[in-house]
Design the sequence.
């Protein structure tokens, strides 16, 4: 798919939101680092460019710089916050204010009034030119500000389109050159009418036509896969999750029975999950082989309690089992992976290396070992788009709306030793949590909800007898993307039912606790 809009990233936390908003408006766009060269931009050949915000001060040491020729190539440009300031400086205006250096809290210089704006603000619209054309007669707009610096003097040819108490030039435009800038963030949901601004820029300011919807994505992708794999076979590891399912259904549409799906039962799945996944896959017309490797995984995991060691063993055994199965299929040339766009964006937000908190289960090793090519049909998509495409292809809602389930499965929720009786105990408690969340109609608003088995024995009394048994933790969080999360405040009756049922229906459990930790500082899974 060719991008009409190129988003250049200067390190804002919101760059992905810009891309999602543009795509929601039916325009295909991609994100590239803000320091991209002019030649690369020419290869993209965009019809419009959006410059993101960023944490640095324009001109400060270490601040990401734009190759300035890009600003003169003649396509319409919208600069947001830092992006607006880049435009201002390039075209001869002035930027002043807080002057923070890119990678420290040191103040570089202060040429403005020193007023920073963080949070809700109101701007008065002075001119509808380009940016506010789709807002009707509105003269005021609620916006979200997050900046230290601001444009303090207009460049030649630009007019002020909006101002706020803290930013006299909160938006500017040069309609002749089709350059626009906003100091605030139209991409965040705290700017309720922000989408209208993008609409104004794309369809009025830049005259772009809509080109992006799930149906055209499916047709183009299927054609692309057929061209890439004219003969031979393709393997795909299915987990039952939405990404691998949508990827497999797309490839299946393209090459039918030449796609061979493999579903590994690692003994760490939820209650009845293997059967449910297999049934779902067969209704979707996929050719799936299930490998029952539960004993093999559990025997390799015997006696292991360290979370990282558990994860590493599960990853390794998965690759071994998958490879053995894939070798039974003749002439395998490609492996399908459900990689999404957030995993492949090369952005300036990712600075330096981060510490490994958890080694994620992935199938990267397969490609090296088996010398396979890769098919990643979802690598241009955000999660919401994967869901939309799944629905478009007729994948049922229970699969599309499924909560994320980690590759290592219940292993990361069964603290301590992974033996079948403990896993079975956890499966029962986990089923109860899921059933009660569903019965309370909370499924859609919750990102993940599950039970955790804790190797903590405590004294209880059941009937007239003493018990000394393990404990179940209830974990439920809301989240946008799994990167941060907040715990769910369940209604009292839901908690009471969960707790009663868990103790009554789960043999070997006499106590239930509620996890009230957000991420950070905790993580969503316990291991
Ligand atoms: P944490 O526990 O790191 O989890 O806050 C963030 C999100 O990632 C999921 N998760 C995994 N997903 N393989 C996966 O595919 C893994 O190894 C893995 N570990 C955690 C977790 O369920 C949550 O949605």
Sequence:
């Amino acid at each position: 798919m060719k991008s009409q809009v190129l988003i250049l990233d200067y390190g804002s936390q919101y760059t992905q939101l810009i891309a999602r908003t543009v795509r929601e408006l039916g325009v295909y766009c991609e994100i590239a680092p803000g320091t991209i060269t002019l030649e690369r931009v020419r290869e993209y050949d965009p019809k419009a460019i959006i410059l993101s915000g960023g944490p640095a001060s324009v001109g400060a040491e270490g601040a990401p710089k734009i190759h300035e020729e890009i600003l003169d190539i003649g396509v319409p440009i919208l600069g947001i916050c830092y992006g607006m300031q880049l435009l201002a400086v390039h075209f001869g205006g002035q930027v002043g204010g807080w002057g923070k250096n890119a990678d420290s809290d040191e103040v570089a210089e202060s040429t403005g009034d020193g007023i920073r704006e963080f949070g809700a603000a109101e701007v008065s619209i002075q001119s509808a030119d380009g940016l506010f054309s789709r807002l009707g007669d509105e003269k005021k707009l609620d916006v979200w500000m997050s900046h230290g610096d601001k444009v303090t003097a207009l460049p030649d040819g630009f007019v002020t389109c909006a101002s706020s108490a803290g930013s006299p030039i909160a938006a500017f435009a040069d309609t002749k050159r089709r350059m626009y800038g906003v100091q605030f963030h139209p991409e965040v949901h705290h700017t309720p009418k922000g989408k209208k601004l993008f609409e104004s820029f794309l369809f009025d300011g830049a005259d772009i036509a809509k080109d992006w919807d799930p149906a055209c994505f499916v047709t183009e992708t299927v054609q692309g896969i057929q061209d890439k794999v004219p003969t031979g076979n393709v393997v795909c590891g299915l987990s039952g999750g939405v990404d691998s399912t949508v990827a497999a259904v797309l490839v299946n549409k393209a090459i039918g029975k030449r796609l061979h799906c493999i579903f590994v039962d690692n003994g760490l799945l939820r209650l009845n999950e293997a059967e449910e996944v297999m049934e779902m896959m067969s209704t979707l017309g996929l050719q799936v082989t299930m490998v029952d490797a539960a004993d093999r995984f559990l025997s390799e995991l015997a006696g292991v309690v360290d979370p990282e060691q558990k994860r590493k063993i599960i990853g390794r055994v998965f690759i071994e089992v998958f490879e053995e199965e894939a070798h039974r299929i003749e002439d395998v040339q490609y492996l399908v992976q459900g990689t999404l766009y957030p995993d492949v964006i090369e952005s300036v937000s990712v600075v330096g290396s981060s510490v490994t908190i958890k080694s994620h289960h992935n199938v990267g090793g397969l490609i090296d070992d088996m010398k396979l090519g890769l098919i990643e049909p979802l690598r241009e998509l955000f999660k919401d788009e994967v869901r939309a495409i799944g629905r478009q292809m007729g994948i049922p809602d229970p699969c599309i709306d499924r909560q994320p389930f980690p590759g290592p499965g219940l292993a990361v929720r069964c603290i301590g030793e992974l033996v079948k009786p403990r896993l079975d105990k956890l499966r029962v408690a986990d089923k109860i949590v899921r059933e009660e969340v569903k019965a309370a109609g909370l499924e859609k608003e919750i990102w993940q909800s599950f039970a955790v088995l804790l190797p903590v024995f405590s004294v209880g009394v059941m009937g007239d007898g003493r018990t000394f048994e393990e404990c179940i933790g209830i974990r439920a969080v809301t989240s946008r993307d799994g990167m941060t999360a907040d715990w769910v405040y369940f209604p009292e009756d839901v908690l009471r039912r969960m707790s009663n049922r868990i103790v009554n229906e789960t043999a070997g459990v006499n106590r239930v606790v509620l996890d009230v930790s957000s991420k950070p500082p905790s993580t969503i899974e316990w291991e």
Q: What stands out?
A: Confidence is low (pLDDT under 50) at residues 99-111. The CA atoms of residues 236 and 390 lie 17 Å apart. The chain has three domains: 5-205, 225-400, 419-514.
